[in-house]
Amino acid sequence: MQNKRFRHLMLIILIFVSSGCVSKEHDNKKALKHMIQSEKLRLLMRELDMVVYERQKSELDRDKMRKRYMLSLGDTLKHLSAEIENMSESDLGLKLTQEDIQEYKRYAKNLSLDADEIYDLAHKYEFELLNKKLEDVKVSCNACHKQFRKEL
Q1: What is the dihedral of CA 45, 48, 53, 58, to 10 degrees?
Q2: Which residues contact 34 (CB under 8 A, 6 or more apart)?
Q3: Rounded to whole angstroms, how far apart are CA atoms 84 and 144?
Q4: Secondary structure of the chain: what % helix, strand, coil (to 5)?
Q5: pLDDT of res. 26
Q6: What are the sequence ranges of the domains in the chain?
Q7: Contact between 85 and 105 (Cβ < 8 Å)
Q8: What's the pLDDT score for residue 32?
Q9: Would the CA dihedral through 4, 10, 13, 14 be positive or negative?
Q10: Angle CA(97)–CA(138)–CA(78) in degrees, nearest 5?
Q11: Is the four-CA dihedral 83, 144, 148, 98 of positive or negative sign?
């Protein structure tokens, strides 16, 4: 009786395995043919795969990106302020009094100080204070523009 059950079970397993193998082999040929015929589709699917399964950045990676951004911002402000401070009166393009020129260069110096503070915040990883510092930069820029830009 057990021998009969064993043979019956073996026959079921053999049928199951052989049907799975044939089906799997057939599916693989189909998939390979599809892949060969559609290089464009494969590239599109890879692009989708990269977006969907993109590795999420860790908090440390995000902090590095924030720090790089802040340092780049500081570099830009430093460069701008140095250019303004070193401009000749004729480069300013305006007929300014000596007091106006000093005021203009004071605004440039303020940009340099703001850049120093941004560098300091970046090195201390105090990213939450950046928005406040950016608001200070904006106020300083707008005050200079109000005083020295012509109304358009």
Answers
A1: 140
A2: 41
A3: 12
A4: 80, 0, 20
A5: 55
A6: 2-52, 59-148
A7: yes
A8: 63
A9: negative
A10: 75
A11: negative
Residues in the chain: 152
Supply 132's token pair: 């406040």
pLDDT at 74 over 90: yes
Question: What is the C-alpha to C-alpha distance for residues 131 and 121, in angstroms, rounded to an integer?
Answer: 11
Report the alpha-carbon distance of residue 139 to residue 118 in Å, rounded.
15
CA dihedral for 12, 15, 21, 27, sign (positive or negative): negative
| Rg, C-alpha atoms of the chain | 34
- Of the candidates 101, 100, 106, the residue with the CA atom closest to the CA atom of residue 81: 106
Tokens (6 digits) for 105: 């260069």
User: 152 near 116, Cβ under 8 Å?
Assistant: no
pTM of the model: 0.59
CA distance 14 to 6: 12
3-class DSSP state of 12:
helix
